[in-house]
Amino acid sequence: MYTDLPEADLRRYVSEQVDPADFDAFWAETLTDAATHDLNVTVIPVDTGLATLDVFDVTFAGFAGQPIKAWLRVPAGATEPLPTIVQFHGYGRGRGQSYENLLWASAGFAHFEMDLRGQGWGGSTSDTPDEAGSGPQAPGFLTRGVDSKETYYFRRLYTDAVRAVEAARSLDVVDAARVGVMGVSQGGGLALAAAGLVPDLAAVVARVPFLCDFPRASVITDAHPYRELGIYLSTNRLNTARAHDTLSYFDGVNFAKRARAPMTMTAALMDPICPPSTVFAAYNNYAGPKQITVWPYNGHEGGAWEDDALTLTAFREHLRQGSGRPGGTAVPESDRWA
Q1: By three-state DSSP, how is residue 318 classified?
Q2: How far is C-alpha 81 from the chain's CA centre?
């Protein structure tokens, strides 16, 4: 059922999130520090038994030079620079197995699938630890290190995402000028962060994105993972202002203001995990060309396979010439590029 604003109000909704004065300086310093570490990209072929795709086990240096795993999948025998999709995953997931997640490479793209440090319990596995410690936190990752922007978990994860784009672009099989980012839920939030931090991406797809509009998300839903904030602040109640100050440096709303790449977003009006107002908070602030598809009767699954079709359409349009919507279905006029 609907528990958020009507769609007409969603399209006018303005977040109360603060845009910190030193937001850009903080991220410039963070990424400059990361750049002091060589990317150290290693690429090892994996024998998957697949006939149509080649798969490689990739390691690169993320935040603080710490090793991050990824999969690279390409059409079998590909050597020329390909349009490339860098994918980030949802909360609790990891890169999974080498023979999973074959759609994007099967469609002709190079597919760079980043692992998530310390995650990997929610339906797929991870091979990347989070090497940093933490002060008090609620179980999960949303409050890990939230006492300061320097120690917050998502500082490390967002930096990993930027470095993943750089690592992908360093590969001969990747066309550095035709790289897009995508993700669902937390992955959508990471895609928005990358869009705000990497100035020359070719396309962005953020499906039912998480990590947007923390001031509203923390009070409008009792579903996890946002519930972790409520649990933490109900005990550490004197830290409320400090925690929200930290979160303002990691909010998709503020990254959206700085993003310029063409962006496709989806929202589900019955989503209790990423309420549609939090998604529209980022969409309404997005500074580049954008479109959003709304699914009125769906929850956090969004449009599922329909969103896969929208994703392929977006990347075909912006990463290479030609190609319409799979199956020949026209994109509704109301959802065309703004």
Answers
A1: helix
A2: 24
Helix, coil or strand: residue 108: coil
Q: Which residues are annotated as a binding site?
A: 91
Pairing status of strand 82-88 against strand 263-268: unpaired
Q: What is the DSSP string of 271-300?
A: -SSS-HHHHHHHHHH--SSEEEEEETT--T
Residue 115 near residue 126 (C-beta atoms within 8 A):
yes
Torsion of CA 183, 184, 190, 195, to 10 degrees: 60
Residue 324 pLDDT > 50, yes or no?
no
Interatomic CA distance for residues 253 and 168, integer angstroms: 26
Burial of residue 139, with CB atoms counted within 10 A of its CB: 0-12 exposed, 13-18 middle, 19 or more buried: exposed
Report pLDDT for 136: 67
271 noted as active-site residue:
yes
Contact between residue 60 and residue 289 where contact means Cβ atoms under 8 Å apart: no
160 is annotated as an active-site residue:
no
* Domain ranges for the chain: 7-335
- Across the chain, mean pLDDT equals 93
Looking at CATH, the fold of the domain delimited by 7-335 is given as Rossmann fold (3.40.50)
Q: What is the pLDDT of residues 121-142, one digit of tens each?
A: 888 889 998 988 666 677 789 9
What string of DSSP letters covers 154-173? HHHHHHHHHHHHHHHHTSTT
**Is-contact 193 114, C-beta < 8 A?**
no
Percentage above 70 pLDDT, the chain = 93
**Position 271 pLDDT exceeds 50:** yes
Catalytic residue among 134, 300, 308, 323: 300
Set 130, 147, 271, 307: catalytic member: 271
